[in-house]
Amino acid sequence: MNIETIAVLGAGTMGHGIAQLGAEASLNVVLCDISGPALERAMKMIEAGIVIEGRTIEQCRAITGRIKGMTSIRDAVRSAGLVIECLPEDLELKKKVFREIDGICSPEVILATNTSGLSPTEIAKGLSYPERVVVAHFWNPPQLIPLVEIVPGERTSLSVVDAAVEWVRSLGKEPVRLKKECPGFIGNRLQLALLREALYIVDEGYADIEEVDRSIIYGHGRRLPVTGPFLSADMGGLDIFHIISSYLFPVLCNAPEPSRLMQGLVEKGDLGMKSGKGFYDWNDEMRKKTIQLRTETLVHFLEKDTSKG
Ligand code: NAD
């Protein structure tokens, strides 16, 4: 695989971070957004992100110099060896854009989507070359989280999956490969299973929001960077986990609808940090402190990863 240029479609939360990763890995990056102001914002965020990482001015210039902004998708994908789509999570929009680029990119160009959980088979439907469509699901912030889930659709070829895994490794990320697609892939299924149970505990009045968060931060969450659910179970003893499963599985939340608590907040426009209110009240100080703490912790883990190997 010899990819020199990538096109990143969508310069929002995920697109700008993936563009930065590509440029840091010495790729030429065409960053495309329908909105000029969004492109300008993205370039400013990339510059700020590189500075935080402690690069010299020359290194910053070299990285940003490899990123070219564009507002036309057709022009953006023309010279790309790989396209990574980071458009809003809207199946019809993604299908429309994939149909458009299918006719422009030569057949060996990989068309990757950063969808959080939509079906790659659906996205690839009706394309001339559906075998080159694959999910490469980066996690936010993509500069600091190693995981990228690689998910094939029903018609994705094995060589495209292999190439996507190789590309993700070349960016310094940790690819996790699914055998076949499922809604939400692995990461969002597990994340949302935890959120559903957390909401249920609060909804049922068993504990307050802060206590639920604290129980993860100071308990289960402390182990998670080292041991996933299977390693944790093995280390705790499968006999114990089996007994706990037998009395707990029947009473865990299995609600098929989103939580009423969260729905009520969304209807009021309380969307969390971005609107100033959600489960918590977000003033400027709390926002800055939480982002800083999260960044420092994620950088600490990245440094540990690097020293491992
Ligand atoms: P976002 O809303 O921040 O960015 C989307 C960008 O796409 C915007 O800048 C918008 O102007 C641009 N856009 C919209 N229509 C366009 C078009 N027709 N042509 C070109 N540009 C267009 O979205 P995001 O949070 O970066 O999410 C992008 C994708 O990544 C989604 O599929 C999302 O589910 C997935 N994702 C998001 C996160 C997250 O935490 N935000 C994490 C992982 C995956």
What does this structure look like?
This protein is α/β, with parallel strands linked by helices and 309 residues long. The chain has a domain at 5-177: NAD(P)-binding Rossmann-like Domain (Rossmann fold, 3-Layer(aba) Sandwich). Helices cover 51% and strands 12% of the residues. It has 13 helices and eight strands. It has an eight-stranded mixed beta sheet with strand order 3-2-1-4-5-6-7-8, with helices on both faces. Helix 1 (13-24) packs across helix 2 and helix 2 (36-52) runs antiparallel to helix 3 (57-65). The mean pLDDT is 95.
Gist of the model:
With 309 residues, the chain is of the alpha/beta class. It has helices spanning 13-24, 36-52, 57-65, 73-77, 91-102, 120-124, 158-170, 187-203, 209-223, 229-236, 238-248, 260-268, 284-308, and strands at 5-9, 28-32, 67-70, 82-85, 110-113, 133-138, 147-152, 174-177. It has a domain at 5-177: NAD(P)-binding Rossmann-like Domain (Rossmann fold, 3-Layer(aba) Sandwich), CATH 3.40.50.720.
